[in-house]
Design brief:
Helices cover 39% and strands 18% of the residues. It has helices spanning 8-17, 26-33, 47-52, 63-67, 103-119, 124-131, 146-156, 184-202, 207-220, 225-238, 281-288, 345-369; strands spanning 36-37, 73-77, 81-85, 135-137, 143-145, 160-166, 169-174, 205-206, 240-244, 247-251, 268-270, 310-314, 317-325, 332-337. The strands form 5 sheets. It has a 4-stranded antiparallel sheet with strand order 11-12-13-14, covered by helices on one side. A 3-stranded antiparallel sheet has the order 1-3-2. It has a 3-stranded antiparallel sheet with strand order 8-10-9. It is globular and about 65 Å long.
Length: 370
């Protein structure tokens, strides 16, 4: 019997099931995801915590930050800033920024690196007090501490790593990366592995989104831009894919969106704006037929969804959104159901109450420490 033709229903189920795996341990979940985007806004918790709560058994807000020093993961850049297994860093380091420092800034950075090497573990405040570098204008017209800029730059270049956070502030130590294979073949292999990583994180991908993600790799691996563009041309030949309603889709060659292995449940979940299911706004619109916007930086009078709207997933449908607030005995959730084909009112009420209970449990530690 011939296989059924690929449909949007297949792609929706596949997009949800492949990343909403059975909850596991924190290290296993990060390894399975490949990359967890970070964001500092708490509404009701940071994006990385909201992403991990669906995928880690008994996860609580703040668990990643608390356990980070003992895990083989790093804060670093890929297509955005976030957390990724340490072995992925070898694909990007030594990182070569597009804009090198001038001689004076480089001298100051070298002094800061020597200071960190001597102290072994350094808080930005220590660097600021020791060197008194003062402030500098940032690209957005504001002013920031030069010490923070130098530490961020050394971290980006792979010379420092984040050892832990103290009340949200990065504490640094000197990084040690294994030597990279800088031969043409070695750089080509690293570029291909980076494309494989982002495809496995965000599949299934419309062709335009795949191109966009490879362009975003210019953040994590700017020095490999020529290689990633060449690897993209090869990836289009080796990835699995199909064209549906005029859109070409790609996914890993060892996966099949039509397979019965992709099973979703009927639990209602509130997703972070940067969850792998939600992150690609182009794909979101194609799969669910409406446009979701992240409006934290939109003036309040112009918001349609709210400050930090959480898309509301039911099965393999995103049927609306919610705004959740921490406070009181665990917070409140305001739901907006957009899709009339979603669950009946009585089911939605029960499912949203269950999700609110889960959110309260998830926030419990953070509320107690606030």
């Amino acid at each position: 019997m011939p296989a059924a033709a690929l449909s949007l229903d297949h792609l929706r189920r596949y997009a949800v099931a492949r990343t909403l795996f059975t909850p596991t341990t924190l290290p296993a979940a990060i390894r399975r995801l490949g990359f967890v985007q970070a964001d500092p806004i708490r509404a009701p918790a940071r994006a990385q915590d909201l992403i991990l709560r669906h995928r880690v058994t008994d996860y609580r807000a703040g668990d990643l930050e608390a356990r980070y020093p003992r895990l083989q993961i790093d804060e670093d850049c890929l297509v955005n800033y976030g957390f990724l297994p340490r072995e992925h860093l070898t694909l990007m380091h030594p990182r070569e920024p597009r804009r090198p420092w001038d001689a004076e800034t480089q001298r100051k950075a070298d002094d800061v690196l020597a200071f960190v090497r001597e102290r072994r573990l350094v808080h930005p405040r220590e660097v600021e007090l020791h060197f008194a570098h003062g402030r500098r204008q940032n690209p957005w017209g504001g002013a920031g501490n030069l010490a923070t800029h130098l530490l961020d730059g050394l971290h980006y270049r792979g010379l420092l790593r984040v050892k832990r956070r103290d009340s949200g502030t990065r504490v640094y130590e000197v990084a040690a990366h294994p030597p990279a294979d800088e031969t043409p073949a070695g750089r080509a292999r690293r570029a291909a592995a980076l494309i494989d990583l982002v495809v496995r994180t965000y599949a299934p991908l419309p062709a335009a989104s795949l191109t966009y993600l490879v362009r975003l790799l210019g953040y994590g691996a700017p020095h490999l831009s020529a290689q990633t563009q060449a690897a993209l041309r090869l990836a289009r030949q080796h990835l699995a894919g199909a064209t549906l309603d005029g859109t070409t889709w790609y996914w890993p060659a060892d996966e099949n969106p039509r397979s019965r292995r992709w099973v979703v449940d009927d639990q209602l979940r509130l997703l972070a704006p940067f969850d792998p299911i939600v992150w690609d706004r182009r794909r979101f619109t194609l799969l669910w037929g409406w446009t979701y916007k992240f409006e934290a930086y939109t003036p309040p009078a112009q918001r349609q969804f709210g400050y930090y709207a959480l898309p509301m997933l039911w099965g393999d449908r995103v049927i609306g959104w919610a705004n959740a607030e921490a406070g009181g005995r665990g917070g409140a959730v305001r739901l907006c159901q957009l899709d009339s084909s979603g669950p009946p009112d009585q089911f939605l009420q029960r499912a949203s109450c269950e999700e609110l209970i889960r959110i309260r449990q998830f926030l419990m530690e953070r509320i107690r420490q606030a």
